[in-house]
């Protein structure tokens, strides 16, 4: 059956057209994202009402990312072999995004590997980081930094592998390259870069403070 993906020679013998309109898919994704952020705010308010706005924003980001990795990307990993033939809401979302990167429907080995690692490792790490921030754990900045580095490294590999392949898996229309392929992934570069840098500075301040305390203790003993 004919399909809308690039390259046109891509073989998808079991492809079934989406059963949901694009507007329905985008609205549904927006509502689910809003629900995840509302859940984050509710949990934070219950567990730590004194949390600063900056900390709440960072925690909400990690909860949103964790849920997205575990559930949405987990769906892909679980159903990757039959995704082209499925017609449920999540499958249709993936089919729409695949117009910008058909490697997802072609079960490209890199995409399957990076998504599998994201589901198994990075998703749970983001959820644990959310809890560490909300509970004020001293481990929050190492966890934040690790999660941010994983996001940046994963995105770098994702873009570089597609670029080296000539971006031939993306449809030529600007909407799919800039609106889907670039814009949908850009937040996982910009936000982790910002949060990772803040965590580096926080860890640096902690070591500097500890060094000063050790120095003062040594002077007293002297």
TrEMBL record:
Tagged with keyword Hydrolase: no
Entry keyword annotation includes Transmembrane: yes
PROSITE patterns, alphabetized: EXPERA
Pfam family, one: EBP
Intracellular or extracellular location(s): Membrane
GO CC terms in record: endoplasmic reticulum; membrane
Segments forming domain EXPERA: 54-196
InterPro entries: EBP, EXPERA
GO MF annotations, alphabetized: C-8 sterol isomerase activity; cholestenol delta-isomerase activity; steroid Delta-isomerase activity
Topology in membrane: Multi-pass membrane protein
Membrane-spanning segments: 20-43, 55-72, 110-133, 145-164, 176-197
Major location (coarse): membrane
Single biological process term from Gene Ontology: sterol biosynthetic process
Superkingdom of origin: Eukaryota
Keyword annotations of the record: Isomerase, Lipid biosynthesis, Lipid metabolism, Membrane, Steroid biosynthesis, Steroid metabolism, Sterol biosynthesis, Sterol metabolism, Transmembrane, Transmembrane helix
Protein family per UniProt: Belongs to the EBP family.
Protein name: Emopamil-binding protein
